[in-house]
Amino acid sequence: MRRAADDYLGGYYELPGGGVDEGETIQDAALREVAEGTGLVPAKVIAVFKGFDYSTDKKPWVRQVNFLVEPKPGDVTLSAEHDHCIWVDERDVLGTKTTDSMIACVKDALAIAKG
User: Fold this and answer.
1) In the beta sheet, which residues pair with residue 66?
2) Which alpha helices (DSSP H) does the chain contain, by range?
3) pTM of the predicted protein model
């Protein structure tokens, strides 16, 4: 998902995600955020894998935890936070405008998906 130009890291691609609401588990938040950010309905969580810490213009510290999710068939619907969506493989992600941490996450997810 490419972040909207007027947002933090605008123009950069990222995995769909977001915060955990009060009373919500991390896994429930991940499933909700996938649905909100992509319009896809998650069928199941395949794996949880390493993430990373970072900061934003509004938050001095954020921990990203990554989930590999299998969605039910459907079409991607962009949220207001994003203006474009692409599907990538290991070669594509290297030429995508994103952060090194995000490249590592995509590579980890692809490795898990391949088994």
Assistant:
1) 49
2) 26-38, 90-94, 100-114
3) 0.87
